[in-house]
Automatic annotation (TrEMBL):
GO molecular function: DNA-binding transcription repressor activity, RNA polymerase II-specific; RNA polymerase II cis-regulatory region sequence-specific DNA binding; zinc ion binding
Pfam families, per the entry: zf-C2H2 (PF00096), zf-met (PF12874)
Gene Ontology cellular component terms for the protein in this record: nucleoplasm
Domain C2H2-type, residue spans: 1-24, 25-52, 53-80, 81-108, 109-136, 137-164, 165-192, 193-217
Species this protein is from: Araneus ventricosus
Protein name: Zinc finger protein 84
Keywords, alphabetical: DNA-binding, Metal-binding, Nucleus, Repeat, Transcription, Transcription regulation, Zinc, Zinc-finger
Highest rank taxon of the organism: Eukaryota
Location of this chain's protein in the cell: Nucleus
Similarity comment: Belongs to the krueppel C2H2-type zinc-finger protein family.
């Protein structure tokens, strides 16, 4: 069929299923079928919630050895996947593929509702919530819900009073990175927002918006 060679007959027999599309191993819980037994065993862990693979450094556990191997690169700082265009390296192949689209401008993930396209499937999933109004992330303290996990994390700092973003100039701290960026302009005197009518400049877009009203009155 494809002339591929194997050192063991068992490996050849497993490979045949690629061509025949036969899936003789079936899950007893959900009836999902697999071409080899090892994939079935891995699948069973989704039902048992068992995570037999443990990181030796931080003791985090995983259902699949592959996920453990990927996680371990956080500790080893290993980044084996290199972009051919800019030589930037990544710890995961999926992250490299996602990055590569910044060069190709490819956006293969399209919204079925409004046809807006995205380079990353995760961004498409988050975008869908604009249409579905779904807010799956709930604050444990006040039960407020959010459509994005990042928004929940930012909100949570209202309760924890955490201010992780610090100004390098005056050491003032902020809850959000955007607030830090806006504050930083008080030091740099940068005013990137320009009025199209009178060319007056502002450091903050909201101030520009308020200024526009002086022209429309």
């Amino acid at each position: 069929m494809c002339s591929k060679r194997f050192s063991h007959k068992l490996s050849l027999n497993k490979h045949y299923f690629v061509h025949t599309e036969e899936k003789p191993y079936s899950c007893e819980v959900c009836n999902k079928a697999f071409s080899n037994k090892s994939n079935l065993n891995q699948h069973y862990l989704t039902h048992t919630k068992e995570k037999p693979y443990e990181c030796e450094v931080c003791r985090k556990t995983f259902a699949k050895k592959f996920h453990l191997n990927v996680h371990c690169r956080i500790h080893t700082k290993e980044k084996p996947y290199v972009c051919e265009k800019c030589l930037k390296s990544f710890s995961q192949k999926s992250t490299l593929n996602q990055h590569y689209r910044t060069h190709t401008k490819e956006k293969p993930f399209a919204c079925e509702t409004c046809s807006k396209a995205f380079s990353d499937k995760g961004n498409l999933t988050r975008h869908y919530r604009v249409h579905t109004k779904e807010k799956p992330f709930e604050c444990e303290v006040c039960k407020k819900t959010f459509s994005h996990k990042l928004s929940l994390n930012q909100h949570y700092r209202i309760h924890t009073k955490e201010k992780p973003y610090e100004c390098e100039v005056c050491r003032k701290t902020f809850t959000h990175k955007l607030s830090l960026n806006l504050h930083y302009r008080t030091h740099t005197k940068e005013k990137p927002h320009v009025c199209e009518m009178c060319s007056k400049k502002f450091s903050d877009k909201s101030n520009l918006t308020r200024h526009y009203r002086t022209h429309t009155k």
